[in-house]
Protein 1
Amino acid sequence: MAEFQPTLLWAIALLPLLGFVVNGIAAFVAPDRKSIPTVVGPATVGMAFLIAAVNFIGMRGADLHGPVIETYWQWIAVGGLRIDAAFQLDNLSMLMTLIITGVGFLIHVFSVGYMREDPGYARYFAYLNLFVFFMLVLVLGSSFPVMFVGWEGVGLCSYLLIGFWFTDRAKADAGKKAFIVNRIGDFGFLVAMFMLYSNAGSLDFVNVFEQAPATFAYGGAAVTAITLFLFLGAVGKSAQIPLYTWLPDAMAGPTPVSALIHAATMVTGGVYLVARAGVLFSLAPISAAVVTGVGALTALFAATIGLAQYDIKKVLAYSTVSQLGYMFIGVGVGAYAAGVFHLMTHAFFKALLFLGSGAVIHAMHEAFHHTHSDRDAQDMRNMGGLRRFMPITWATMWIGTLAIAGVWPFAGFFSKDEIIWQVGAHAVGPFAGWYRTFWVMALAAALMTAFYMTRLMVMTFHGENRSGEKERQHLHEVSPVMWVPLAVLAMLSVVGGWINVPAAIGNAPVLGWLPHSEWLHEWLHPVTEAADGVAAANAAAPLHSAPFGGGEVLWAVLSFGLAVTMIALASAVIGGRRYRPAEESPPPRGFMGVLYNAWYVDGIYDTAIVKPILAVSRGLARFVDTFLIDGIVNGVGQASRAFGWVGSRLQTGQVNSYAFALVAGVLILIALVVLQ
Amino acid sequence: MIGLLQSIGYPDWVLNALLLVPVIGMAALLAGVGGRPRTVALVIAVAELAISLPLWFAFNPAAAGMQFAAEFAWIPEWGIHYRVGMDGISLMLVLLTTAILPIALLGSYNYITNRERTFYAMMLLLEAGIIGVFVAMDLFLFFMFWEIMLVPMYFIIGIWGGQRRIYAAIKFFLYTAFGSLLMLVGILYLFFKYRALTGDLSFAYADLLQVPLTFGEQYWLFGAFALAFAIKVPIFPFHTWLPDAHVEAPTPGSVVLAAVLLKMGAYGFLRFLLPFFPHAATHPTIVMTMLVLGLIGIIYAAWVAAVQPDAKKLIAYTSVAHMGFVVLGVFALTVRGLQGAMVVMLSHGLSTGALFLLLGMLYERRHTRLIADFGGLATVAPMFGAAFVFTALASIGLPGTSGFVGEFLALLGTFETHPWVAIIGTTGVIFAAYYMLPMVQRIWFNSLDNPANRDLPDLSRRELAVLAPLIAGMLWLGLYPKPVLERMEPTLSALVRTVEQRSGPALSFEIEIADPIDTPAVEGRAGGGQP
């Protein structure tokens, strides 16, 4: 097979950066000339996708075992430390690049319609392009520090885009919260890098991962600490317990931003990090169990909150937190391909669902705008029956719902099912009991997913319309520039799962109708094989049955059946309920109130962490700095004022001569000492 | 390039010229040379920058020792000579100084309205004093520059400052003069000890470096020098002069104070404290004390900064936090830590200098520094807002900017020798966001509800021209710090080696370390005599 050489790898990242520069200049120079960002914004990302596709085709035809590294310049070189500004193209970063530029392009196109009327149009595309650039640096970087540049860079763009409408204080607050909470994770990332460097003597992926099995003892303290700190970084970026609270607030940003950054790409950065550092996590079984446990807990916890939200974007936000939990379950049990698989399918169907909700909000907003109503355009209690007005959005969003709920043969069925199967199969070894619990949690969360998503669809699109008489006249389907991306993503949400049909299912009757390839599994094999090797050598082999019996096919059929049951149940329950517009509804009470208020976690954090830190800060400023230290300093000053000539000079106010006098005094002192 | 420079004798006269040109400028201003004083000062500062820039090329990056050395007898009876030289550390700090000065002057071109002539004369004297501190290779000369620099700064705060300028100026002077006196005692002690040993009189850096010191002497002298430098850095709890000085100082004073003056303390650590008193500087208790003070600086100053209602005071406290990273990097005593400390200093010079300029520009427009008086400014002054947000993010160490490279290396270097200290210090990245982002939001974001802000003009061309090089510098140092790092590397590696060698068990007069097996205490005391 041919030797693989990347084509214009640098240009994939540079094009969006160029877009940022052009749109950024346009934002200052000609903010009203919308034609520039309309072309430059999507085109740079689209071209990046095409180049990525060319590389992908080249890689498929080549025999590629190790990563291809392109070094651009020496970034930091001190002592033995050497960090290059370099990109690494391998099967994993290739896949991520395709997702980022592909889904990113669709969302850029959608944004042309969604943001058309916004005065900050050019600024929006500048930020969005910059985001794509940093996201590509994140996945293409060939070392932890270069990845960290992308890591904090996407955080910056997230900050800027959440607070895009910054004159609204709540939105600006949400951006700030996202940045600060993410920095807690970044703290972990940094400490992990310091530990890695002092243990492995390098921060390049290739060096670290190649020598990791020799450097670190299996289950040793060093590798456990490193992976736990890395995971802290992942928890921040990927909104897992306990650092997930920024993501629901991040919905303050424009909806396409939620689709791109807070669903399809940036928030999956933590999953990518764990998959990338798979060798290290495979060497640290405790950390791997922590990853799985946090993932399972988050998947379940966020799903419960999703059951009770009325804001359409909040439902999707908690759903994202929950689905990210699944991805961590996947990479936590060492099924890196499964985790990345779900990352990919989730990018399709969650981007679709977010853009669909964006289309709904756009339509609702326009209708309310026409009638000068200040009602909430995002509250599902103000919607209902939108199917009539927005049939394309309705149909595509149902596809997304079926995909996320895990209905065969939609994409989510294959990816989520594999994760649930894998966590069950890993209920062996020292943490078997824990893994069995995680398996149950993952199953329970899957049922809730089907329920809250159906609830969202029914409340939004079915039943009676609750938007109001006059408003109804203005409700209509969105323009093609917005629904075409929805259609493309819907198609991907159907077929996206077929690239990795597990052999067991592929060989089963009926289910086997699909092309049964474990293509993605094989594609990622060069990246995951080192981690697989470590696991095979040290950990117990996975089981061939679920914790309470049953094989892969049986459980696939069972979970399919359960998903369909939950959808039917939710349709019946929610469809039978009569909702009143948000303004007329009392706040939810009882247990639903607890869920609606997200278990009051934000309030608890505020009381237990944020307010005490502020109070201590004020105390330090007033007491220690002003009273204590300055008190002493001023006291000394006062005392000296009472004595000697220094004081007399001060009191006569001749401050100017005082300075010279002191220097002169010093010189006289020297003279006296020298001439003694 | 190098050939051309050598043909005009550049390496021989460059340092003399750098010290002389500002003094000539000052004299010209005071003598009443025509033209507006600010123009004269700017021309001089630009000329100074032009003279200093070829240093970058003429400097031999492979050499660790002093370059561009010059010397002549000044008061030979007392062994005082004019001795100057430049190594990798001095090079960067001198270039930072010559680059910041014209920017500070132009950035506050309309700020000073009374007694212009004196003000600009003081600024030029300040520049000469600072450069002198960074290039002096004679301890008497060093001390003189150290003191000279105090005088113009004192006047700049005391005459052209805000409402509490007298208090701030005296506080600044008392704090610093107190430290200097202790340092002077230390210098004289070294001088007399050298005379006692050799019979010669010398204040030369190279000579006094050779003075063998017992452990006891090292600890006392370390204390004297360390206090002088710690006040200047400043290190907690000697920092309270800084917020007052910054708040009261006029913009150009604040810029120079933050960008360059604070670096003199850390420079003293590197130039004197570590090589002169290696035993003390490597003593575990002392090192841990310094590291803990650095940590307190990072976290305590960040927390105190977060609740300041005055934006300028807030930024002043962040300087203390930044300098905490410098302290960590220095006392980690690793090449990476020292490089990190240096980059933090340079980065802080650019980003905090820029922040003070930006706040000064805001003050010129609105005559207030209170954060609560602002809000939503980005709607009326988007370019101003963009420059501010970028600078603020560079200041809190966003990767790709200079702040990250510095903090990353300083913490990495610290982790090698003191992992727990580094881990606690890394929490500084969280608290940096905690103090910076709320301030940014309350000034630039939120709704524009104060009518006084409605017609706030965006940046002028002059202001853009002033900020552009600083922003470019932050990006350059963040993306391609290699040329800077490689010019400092030999100096800093040599410094680490010197400290390691000299903190060996014993010191003899010729630095030929007697025998590592000898018991330290006995040998240390015996080292007082001739070998």
Protein 2
Amino acid sequence: MLKYTLKRFFGTIPTLFVIITLSFFLLHAAPGGPFDMERAMPPQIKANILKMYHLNEPVWKQYFLYLGNILHGNFGPSYVYRGTTVNDLIKQGFPVDLIVGGFALLGALLIGIPIGIIAALRQNSPWDYGPMAAAMLGLSIPNFVAAPLLILAFAVALRLLPAGGWAGGSPLFVILPAVSLGLPLIAYVARMMRGSMVEVLNSPFIRTARAKGLPEHTVILRHALRPALLPMVSFLGPAVVGVITGSIVIEEIFGLPGIGRFFVNGALNRDYTLVMGVTILYGMLILTFNFIADVLYGFLDPRTRHQ
Amino acid sequence: MAAFLEIRNLSVSFTTPDGIVHAVNDIDLDLNEREVLGVVGESGSGKSQFWLAVMGLLAKNGRAEGSVKLEGEELLGLSHSRLNRLRGEKMTMIFQDPMTALNPYLTIGRQMTEVLTSHRKIKRREAERRAIEVLKAVHITGAEERLGMYPHEFSGGMRQRVMIAMALLADPKVLIADEPTTNLDVTVQAQILALLNELRDQFGTAIVFVTHDLGVIAQIANRVVVLYGGRTMEQARVKDLFAQYRHPYTEGLLYSVPRLDAVRTERLVTIAGNPPDLARLPPGCPFAPRCVYVEPRCRRQMPPLEAVGPDHLRACFHAGDLGRLQAAT
Amino acid sequence: MTDERRRLMRRLNWYPGRGAVGKMETALEQQELEGRSLWRDAWIRLRHNHAAIASLIVLGLIALAAVVIPFFWPYGYAQPDWNLINHGPTFVGAHIFGTDALGRDLFIRVMWGSRISLMIGVVATMVTLVIGVVWGATAGYVGGWVDGLMMRTVDILYSVPFIPFVIILIVLFGRNLFLVFAAIGAVSWLDIARIVRGQTLSLRKKEFIEAARAAAVPGRIIIRRHIVPNLLGIVIIYVTLTIPSIILFEAFLSFLGLGVQAPMTSLGGLVSDGASVLQSYPYLLYFPAIFLAAIVYCFNFVGDGLRDALDPKDR
């Protein structure tokens, strides 16, 4: 088990490296630079600025400089939000995403899993068709459609919740964004859980459990649940990716001060360091969750535990 | 003496998108205490579905009709909770592939003790003691340590032993074994068969042994019933079936087994044709399309099950001698 | 009795024999039940799935409309009608879905949008299919260190946050349609590569492949006759489930302002435009959203139905 864990852990390092390298060269390969959008600037000033940020040096040199900085935890200054460092921007914005994304993920699991289980237990009944059809609908509507609809319903019509803004993270402001973000996740989890549960319930060992005369609730809780939940663990990685992607949209719609907007705007304005910083952060998140999911899965499945 | 298990007119059908599949058609069967009943048939003969219906383990699209009485109590249509009380305690079933039949996520100990803890409110410690006893009875060494292990840590033969042990834990009156040795090596198979014989003496359980392998039947059964197309073709004591079979299908089964000591012939004897399509069964005897002794009335009418000797039944119209397949070898 | 069977039997020295048993056997061979191929079975099962069939019909209608209507509809997708700006659905001037802020007819824009979305979905899926299948099948079939290397690459790329990458790509290199396809394709092939590789690997080990090799069937025929048909099922399911996710992804890009360039538009573009004016002109969102949701919904149902039909284990 330990070997397995260590193997997984060290496996993530090359990936991180690839992410950093790929993004760096991709960004620098594109035409244009961070200061091209400026109003006409006297060329000497521009040259000085470029020199200050090492932007006049060959790309590979900048790359190693950047690597060096990163290893010290320094993501550099932002070119667009002058006066602030990328580290600060991330520190400000990330907690927002963490809260909204975290609740979305949690909610998705807490709601989606029971729905899926019930659908599987009552297969081909209204408890199955109804939620599954709704889930399908949830997956078919992009969250930038669902979000405005929710705003229309809860903020404008019912006036129960604010239509946007963050107010330092007070609960009311978290609800709608988290729900909008989590909706497609709930749908996916529910469908996946149902499929997995159905498959487990058709396994030979469930038939054995029934043949032993175990009461149905024991069969389900003790025998079926654990194997059925395993795919959820694997889903953790893709789930995080989904949350990240969704958060970009949600932030824009609800006007949340998260890091998603830094990403798009940064890319548009060639704010290299900012985009790199956010990309690396995203990458690390994904890698971390994938790692946790792998280890957890290995732990829960006795067959790998004994490897 | 009333039989311990009385089955009358049992029919099992499945609703599928391709139509209704009639897996078992109107079978009567008795099982006596402490006897070993062999149930022989090819794939698709209904031999497994029959016993799944008895245990109440049919798939969702399956339906069983008729009557199954266990010690006088009707099983079909029984409430789920009552059926669960009987399963595991009075009647148990073990299956073909022990790797998939055991839950890979629970320890052997857990899977065994839960039979006792849920049926008889026995404490875990006591249940473990009993589990160890039974594991020893099936010749598994190091039983105490084994309780904490997972199925994948056992070999195929050992897993099947564990399954048998698990089934015998609550002292059932009947153990239904659905092709338990089909997936095992021949040597292991021999061990398991010897084990079952031994256990039958030790525990006093009746055993139903479902298989397609006549050789196994010869080693272990007291009585045999031969199924085809969901119907009983022949039923007799083991010796009588082998020595004085009276049904063409039985003849086909017996003589299609190649013998090492036979004179080498040009080709193997087979039963010509294909197994029946259970969704489109013809009227009359299901074996008619493949029978060398077939008469016109065989295709129109199902021959009734009649006695042709003491404890010997068969369903066939053919009045004369059999033996053509024997001549062909 | 098929030719193949005859040949096989001759190989095994089987001839219709003498005696009663032999005659019976010959007669029976002639009545041989015709085998039902896997595809026929699957088609029958699919036919019973009413949701899937209904979805196919709806998809067909939408596709038909998207292709045919622009040819004879009086308005172009970029054509403003200055008399009727921001007008709700009306029969006046046959603006049955209404008009947008520039007076463009929404109906024709939805038709064009459907066309573009479907096109993007199909083409991008084909791209990922080609890359993914070739990659996965090669890794699975060749095996060994080649397999290891190829799949390790997939593993690494899998963890790369590809959506940021696509965004980077598009922002930096412009918004021509080709690049959009390429970007989407470049990041989506990983899934199908994994699936195809897994399937090829397990197929390669199956007994009937061994048997074919033992009978000296040449490699390319093994691939054509045994491996490809078995991959086909999975590939078809993947295609029907990927197209909608690509359409949604393009919608996402449109929302960020990175999708198809105006005045041309996709359903995603229409939806994101409509979402911003939801409160004032709801129809601008509702009509394209219905079409978008319908397309995605139907593809998913068909994909599910196909999955059930080709692999009915978990009905």
Protein 3
Amino acid sequence: MKTVRLLAVGWWFQLKMISRSPFEGVGQIIYPLFFATVAFFVFRAGDSPRTLLYASLGAAVMGMWSATSTTAGAAMQRERWHGTLEALVATPPHFALVLLPITLAMSTVGIYSLAATLAYGHFLFGIDLMIEHPLAFCLAVVGTVLSFGSLGFLFAVMFVRFRAAWALGNLFEYPVWLIGGFLVPLALLPSWVGPIAWVLAPTWGMNAIREAALGGTPLPDLALCLVLGALYIALGILVLDRVLGAARKRAALSLT
Amino acid sequence: MAVVEAQDLHRTYRTSTGTLRRKWKNVEAVRGVSFEIAEGELFGLLGPNGAGKTTTIKMLITLLIPTSGTARVLGFDVVKDAREVRKRIGYVFGGERGVYERLSGYDNLRYFAELYGVPPKEIRPRIEYLLELVGLKGREQERAEGYSRGMKQRLHIARGLLHDPPVVFLDEPTIGLDPVGARELRATIASLAQAGKTILLTTHYMFEADALCDRIAVITRGQIVAHGTPADLKRGVAEGTVVEVEVFGVPEGTPDRVRELNGVLGVSIEEREQAQVLIVQTRADVELTHSILGTLDGANIGRISTREPTLEDAYVALVADEE
């Protein structure tokens, strides 16, 4: 209970901080518009209205992923810039319980991106937003946010040694759009891409959201998405202990 | 039992120069520091910038692993039992950074109260009490980005005390504060000591250590060069005399020439607008004014005065000896 409370409070305050950043706010208004426009112009040639929803959902999840990948990788670096990393490390909880809410808050911002992209698509381009299984759709969105936050957590841990961690996060933005099948179906990509896509939670999150919206069986995809998210957290925790130990040895916690 | 024990602490940093042909160098920031702090004691670690004060404190609060040596806080090893140590200590550092600027002062404290495991029911009254203690009451709902440096520093103090820790580490808490703010902060630190907290304070202000500390250790170049009560340290210089000579452009090599004079205990130079002041500490039984003037090699000389040594002179002498 204490752990859940700590995660929830950490998530809430981090979300509060992100929502007050004018720079990040402007990006969150512009990007969804861009994504919705791309989806519409790429797929408008299709004759089925469901194709546009398919594309619109892909664009929406692209926005969700961008919101996470471009920020989460540099989550620890951001704390360094604020001068808060040492203060956080000096608190008693395992640092994973401090870091995970930060990356989860970053991925939560993606819900806004998803909603804005769908709304832009609907109001500007007339895309029909008929969702077949609304409850499953909501669950799929929450599950995808959780798995994105988990992957962001793993990125944050892996990239902590690199001062240009934000650039590494950006590096993963576009390949995941492609490999995760956000806009182009996986079947159209070379077969060797398949195994890479399977270990990426965003692939299954995307599938779950589309299955729920377009009519299908979203739960197996959602389950896989959550299992992969849990694996990312477990791997992140293992790496985090080593990373923090090394940082305390090398006096790298306060470096900016 | 000592609440804080440091035994032969060493800390070496590895630094590099160059890009393609990187040359690595080991810098010894702390070289064999040992001390103990008893329960309820306010212990000062005093030294100039770069002396190793912050490195020492960071080893004690578990943020840095010592290269060698051991340290314990309330019986817990700072390396092996880091989590147990963290539960029982508060850490306050000087400077403006280290707060979430976009959160209010209250939210900053609320977040860290959760991290320090303050029971939910106690969080609000505890924060209210601390806001009152550090003088931020009434400003707590404002975003921290609008706080002055002094207010941020007081927010740091409140944060360090959220879980009511028995041991508090204060790393140069008054640095950069205006005189009134610094005085208020010193009063807060004194009240913490009166409340029975064990405190380690690092500072490079002699008068601050003198006013607050039960015992002081002077650290320079990573080593403790003197320790004792403020009175002990004062006694070490009480029998000398200080000659101050105002000089408009001290000739090169003057401090070395003055140091060679028989009876000189320490030499330092202080910048004062257009002039410099050569401060020479001498034994009480010698009169060296003429000899000192003789070393100045025809430089323009202003006011000359002789006075009793202060604690600051003792500190300067100790630090200068090592440099």
